[in-house]
Write a structure and sequence with these properties.
This protein has 159 residues and is of the alpha+beta class. The protein has a single domain, classed as 3-Layer(aba) Sandwich (Chemotaxis protein chec), CATH 3.40.1550. The chain is built from three helices and eight strands, in the order H-E-E-E-E-H-H-E-E-E-E. Helix 1 packs across helix 3 and helix 2 packs across helix 3. It is globular.
Length: 159
């Protein structure tokens, strides 16, 4: 399992440093029950298919999403406008694309377009009774946290 976790952590740290200019630190990953994952105020979801299938989600509070968007656009935002939705979708897209490239050496995967879910304390529900969801919290800025949620399984086509 570590072979799938480490790329997500490394890619996430690199994307935030290179693309956004923010230092982040991974906290201790943990597994969560599929029906008990509460999101923040906004989550961006991207799916994987191919030799591995599943999804990756980045979830955060409104203030973190707005602060990230301010950095990316160079202009202030006060609400969850289209710029914020686009920015968070682009972040998860870059993370998934880089993970796909890194794992592409061992398996072939296709990623979907990002989907944005918003609403205070929304809950993300995962299909399948056997799905194990890895939650990787990251610290960002002074005392904020966002979470990368990963559920990925190899299919029978994988080596």
């Amino acid at each position: 399992m570590e072979q799938y976790i480490k790329p997500f952590i490394n890619v996430c740290i690199d994307v935030f440093k290179q693309f956004i200019g923010c230092e982040i630190a991974a906290k201790i990953p943990y597994f969560s029950e599929k029906d008990s994952i509460a999101g923040g105020d906004i989550s961006a979801v991207i799916g994987f298919t191919g030799e591995a299938c599943g999804a990756v989600i980045i979830s955060m509070q409104k203030k973190v999403a707005i602060k990230l968007t301010d950095i990316l656009t160079g202009s202030p935002h006060t609400s969850m406008d289209d710029d914020v939705l686009d920015a968070i979708g682009e972040i998860v897209n870059i993370i998934a694309g880089n993970v796909k490239q890194e794992l592409g050496e061992t398996m072939n995967m296709i990623i979907s377009l990002p989907t944005i879910v918003q609403g205070a304390d929304h809950i993300v529900r995962w299909p399948g009774s056997q799905t194990r969801i890895l939650c990787i919290p990251f610290s960002i800025f002074e005392d904020d946290v966002f979470t990368l949620l990963v559920a990925i399984e190899t299919t029978t086509r994988a080596h």
